Amino acid sequence: MIDTNSNYLMTINGQATASTSTKPVYNPATKQVIAEVPDCTNEQFEAAVASSRNAFSSWSATPIEERQAIVARLGDMLEEQAGEFMALLTREQGKPAAGAEWEVYGSAAWLKAIATQSLPEEVIEDNDERKVITRYTPLGVVGAIVPWNFPLLLAVWKIAPALVAGCTVVLKPSPYTPLCDLKFVELAQQILPPGVLNCISGGDDLGRWMTAHPDINKIAFTGSTETGRHVMSSAGEHVKRVTLELGGNDPAIVLPDVDAKAVAPKLFWAAFQNNAQFCNATKRLYIHESVYDEVRDALVEFINTEVKVGNGAKEDTDLGPIQNSMQYEKVQMYFADCKNNGHKFAVGGEIDTSAEGWFVPVTLVDNPAEDSRIVREEPFGPILPLLKWSDEADVIARANDTIYGLGASVWGEDLDAVQRIGSQIEAGTVWLNEVHQYSPFQAFGGHKQSGLGCENSLHGLMEYTNWQTITLNKKGANQS
Ligand code: NAD
């Protein structure tokens, strides 16, 4: 057990490490500073990379069963302190208890599930004359860079497979939400050898140092598409491996045969889970014109009667604040753009800038033009455009007309139609009559500019390895 309420330090080579200066961390529900974290110096960054490099030879030689057992134990340890981590997550990220519970227990479950995975050698050919195998060897030092919307879970999605595969890790949390990650890595030191898992805090510069460092072999990155492009080009210098989990503009397509009242709560949560600060949030809701008014009105009623926006630390809160001032300003810009272009709001639309925290009302935009910014871009906040459709081929084309391809969902009673439409969507995950179902055994990643590579499943584990083919001529060196 560790103290999660104070003393937020980096972990470098197994040592709790302060720096010469600190950076503040805010509670987004109050805009108050709740902690100061070390601002990692370049020297400390170099020390973290060197310690991960040193630890790699013994960690990669540790039998996989031992590595799996340690990763599973990390899951148990997190679960034993789940309550403290949930409270800390709400304080730094803003999400209410239900979301914090999902993320903390989800992180523990992921650690334990990924710990059951392995990549055995594949025998390609084995006869009297030759043996050919393909095996999977660990890549080396992984730089894990995570965003602020699911700070703990998205760190675990990288740490767990990296450690199981035999890699060592330097973790860099978002400057906005470093606390849970610093504390999780501190907790992990109780059972991990020094250097296997480091955590450094600071600004975006740290990310740039990581992508450029010749001794980091892979960058596992989750964040915006814009930053992802920088990561990819910087990583190119040393032909570093990258996994990129980037932005999305997920469409949801609602068929004419839905029951508006029954489907409205599901559509609401598809779009507004985590206060819509979610790569996989539904960001464009295409409703068949024959049920458009009914579904819109059912959503408005649900929002007005069932959804409370407030401080996540309060029990009755359903949606918390926007996580940080930068994002708050970005979301404000989308509200202003809608107003300036004369779009109608079905609900919401007015941000109270005098509120105690960075709060934004749940807002539905009533059938704006397809080429408006609120439809084309990723607002990453609780403002959702509702759009009408009538022709199946046309709605599929509109759903696919984006640089993104992360997720999508289709909703209807006619399962043939649901599957037919779903199979034509260009996205990494297509949910049919459900949404946001994830699993450690299910590949997750983006098509198009939503990413490169994947996380979770054996495909995700493979991304922390080099495949290596070994051939043996059994006749020996001398015989022809
Ligand atoms: P961001 O791109 O601003 O930051 C992500 C991380 O990258 C942070 O840790 C940041 O410090 C670091 N960073 C910033 N500049 C960097 C650089 N030049 N080189 C290396 N690292 C750098 O993203 P954000 O605002 O924290 O997160 C929101 C975005 O993340 C949204 O676009 C969202 O869709 C996306 N996201 C994607 C997924 C997914 O799995 N596809 C999941 C969650 C969030």
Q: Span between N and C termini?
A: 64 Å
Strand tally:
20
Hetero groups bound?
nicotinamide-adenine-dinucleotide
Tell me the major beta sheet.
7 strands, mixed
Instruction: Please give the order of strands in the largest beta sheet.
Output: 14-15-16-13-12-17-18
Protein structure class: alpha/beta
Low-confidence stretches: none
**How large is the radius of gyration?**
24 Å
Question: How would you explain this protein's 3D organization?
Answer:
The chain has 480 residues and is an alpha/beta fold. The chain is 38% helix and 21% strand. It contains 15 helices and 20 strands. The protein has helices at residues 42-61, 64-80, 82-93, 97-114, 151-165, 179-188, 204-212, 225-236, 260-272, 292-306, 325-340, 373-376, 392-400, 415-422, 457-462, and strands at 10-12, 15-17, 22-27, 32-38, 122-126, 130-138, 141-145, 168-172, 197-199, 218-222, 241-245, 250-254, 282-288, 344-347, 363-366, 383-389, 407-411, 429-432, 451-452, 465-473. The strands form five sheets. It has a seven-stranded mixed beta sheet with strand order 14-15-16-13-12-17-18, sandwiched between helices. A six-stranded mixed beta sheet has the order 9-8-7-10-11-19, with helices on both faces. Strands 5-6-20 form a three-stranded antiparallel beta sheet, with no helix packed on it. Helix 9 (260-272) links the parallel strand 12 and strand 13 (282-288). Helix 2 packs antiparallel against helix 4 and helix 7 runs parallel beside helix 8. The radius of gyration is 24 Å and the shape is globular. Nicotinamide-adenine-dinucleotide is lined by residues 145-149, 172, 174-175, 204, 207-208, 211, 222-224, 227, 230-231, 245-248, 279, 378, 380, 406, 446, 451.
